[in-house]
Amino acid sequence: MDSQAIVTLPEHEQPAHEHPDYVRHHFANADQQRETANFGMWLFLLTEIMFFSGMFAAYLIYRNWYYPAFVAGSHYMIIWAGTMNTAVLICSSFTMAMGVYSAEMRNRKALLRWLTLTLLLGLVFLGIKAYEWHAEWVEHHVPGLNFSIEDFTHVNPKYPADRPLSVGMADKTQIYFSLYFAMTGMHALHMCIGCGILIVLLFQAWGGTYTNGHMNTIENFGLYWHFVDIVWIFLYPLLYLISRHQ
Amino acid sequence: MSTIVSLPDQSTAKLPKHTYLNNEYGLKSWLLTGDHKRIAILYLISITFFFFIGGAMAGLIRLELLTPQSDLVAADTYNKLFTMHGIIMIFLFLVPSVPATIGNFLIPIMVGAKDLAFPKINLLSWYLYIVGGCLILWALIAGGVDTGWTFTTPLSTHYLNTHVITAGMAIFVAGFSSIFTGLNFIVTIHRMRAPGMTWFRLPLFVWSHYAASILMVLGTPVLAITLVLVILERTIGIGVFDPTKGGDPLLFQHLFWFYSHPAVYIMILPGMGVISEVISTFSRKRVFGYTAVAFSSVAIAVFGFFVWAHHMFIMGVSNYSALVFSLLTMLVAVPSAIKIFNWAATLYKGSITFETPMLYAFGFMGLFTIGGLTGVFLGSLGMDIHLTETYFVVAHFHFVMVGGMLMAFLAGVHFWWPKITGRMYPEGLSKLAAGTTFIGFILTFFPQFIVGYLGMPRRYAAYPPEFQVLNVLSTAGASVLGIGYLLPILYLTWSLKYGKIAGNNPWQATGLEWQIQSPPLTENFVETPVIDYEAYDYEWLANKTKHEVQTVG
């Protein structure tokens, strides 16, 4: 937007010093811009909650209906991978928070370092997730494309005390895995988008865009990153943990 | 007949030298604009385009139903016609109709801001709409979709070999356009209000858009994930809605209607905002019970989220939940009735004049009341079993959507046309169009109540011969209605060049948008306005005008 377009406020409301370049023409001052952008981001996260909640609702219903199938399905989750991914994501949230802090402190080097670390941790998460998906493909646990109920009509060697499921209930493990792939898939999609944005932010931060007092974008991206992290914090117990010892 | 229209002396009047329209020239200045007013115009052109495509399909549907046999088009083609008609009219016309055009143009001006909070996201939302629209056109050209606009599973996932995926993606993308519009409105209304513009000084138009935006922001993502699951089921065969794998098609219905019922309030609430402005202006009175009307919008938005299962009474939901949903459905009638009664009370002892927007507003009040009341019939459990999936339902939602929202949209377009373009539309012709629309509408859809009550099911190309008379009436009405819609596009286009110069405030209205030049500047206001009066304060306006006259004298 052109800077001539800025309309001057009446004298008494003229902010004493602030109208830096990064304030868009339709905002009165940097504070208003920052509040507005934050508010917008929180609203967007609200829509994201609604987006995921459709799948969480489905999970809740089907878990009640097909309880044994959900237990059997979760016994095939790779627990170390899930746990490690949880740790990786929590660390990435920490590095992201440090990134926001560095932007606030106007420390360009620290910002670059923390953003790079966040990106790397994000990629590690995606790598481990891809490894898990591959393992599930090999075990014929991908509903629709490559699925067999074989594993569930026999005793799971890791859980010798479990009784095998009837064919009818074993069929329902497809619902568990459908939801597993839909939920982790949507989550991973959000991670990919996050990593993509991070790369752009890194380039901009390199040029010093976010260490001159304008750190809205970093702050709001941080909110997004933490949100995606929190979704995983719900997925991990629901898919891996709660039926572990049943 | 008396009139409140006051235009400047046409022999000397000129359009303002600098406006948002001549600020920049060239296609690029439009396609890359951040100006909410230009984006509103882009939306207006695109939704009009899709309206006429959807309308053409409605015409073909009515032609087919002229005779009892399925003779004009094959039954399969007929299925595609009503499906595409529904998808285009709902997702590409009604949902963005008032908010993305009139709302986009006016919300920033009404709150006293220079633009919406996120101009680039506003532009992005138009592009998403266009991408969604192109995908729909692609689905249409490639052979159409015949699931009905509801995409009912397992019909849509297993039994139909049409372009469900393309249409699903189109709605997914267009849905994000609507999410971004809603998000932009909420943030703008919260954070961009001018000094002195308190919540209860906001025009009711802004309140109703705020309520509709809440629905857009919270409802649309649920539709998005539902469509993603349908697409995943069709493409790779995951089983969330697939009974053979243990999935439940009813869950699809729940998720789909969780959005699609609130969506009808997304469609109607902005229209109600238009009606509040128009009724107040042309009866020269503050809207009766301002606070009640404002909160009734919010109440509709809140209740709207808890009534979705009334679309599913015959689909095997539990009787007890059906009872609760029936009760909640009737509760929605309360805030809707509050609005109708308050508008009627506004008219009472008002100085009413009958300009075109007011005629459309009267049309809205009558038709929406019939549409709303028949909704109560459908919300009661016993009646619903008899009437559901019949033409009674078709008539009911057309009364609300077409009789309500489309009338409100046309009222709004006429009302703010002088502000948007700086020129008046021709009054005589537009009154004719308003009358034609009303008569055509009643003739088209009233017989459908009767034919539906008698038992004619919806979504069939053929019907028993005893229903023919009523169907012929309906088709005749549709032709009249078609003329009613063609007229405005002709004379509004004409008026762009030959219309009378409108001046700043042809209606003597109180809204902030009427206190600036028409068409407005790109920045809307020369300096940030300071608000010291309530909405619809005609005394304030009279004093202000007197003051101006004195200064000139």
By secondary-structure content and strand pairing, the structural class of chain B works out as mainly alpha
- What global shape of chain A is seen? elongated
pLDDT average of chain A, as an integer?
Answer: 90
Domain unit count of chain A:
1
Summary tags:
heterodimer; A: 246 residues; mainly alpha; Four Helix Bundle (Hemerythrin (Met), subunit A); two-stranded antiparallel sheet; 2 strands; disordered N terminus; B: 553 residues; Cytochrome C Oxidase, Chain A; 16 helices; globular
Description of the structure:
The complex is a heterodimer of chains A (246) and B (553). Chain A is mainly alpha-helical and 246 residues long. Chain A has a single domain, classed as Up-down Bundle (Four Helix Bundle (Hemerythrin (Met), subunit A)), CATH 1.20.120. In chain A, strands 1-2 form a two-stranded antiparallel sheet. In chain A, strand 1 and strand 2 form a beta hairpin. The longest helix of chain A is centred in the last third of the chain and has 40 residues. The N terminus of chain A is likely disordered. Chain B is mostly helical and 553 residues long. Chain B has one domain: Cytochrome C Oxidase, Chain A (Up-down Bundle). Chain B is globular. Chain B starts with 26 loop residues before the first helix and ends with a helix. Chains A and B meet through helix 1 and helix 6 of A and helix 6 and helix 7 of B.
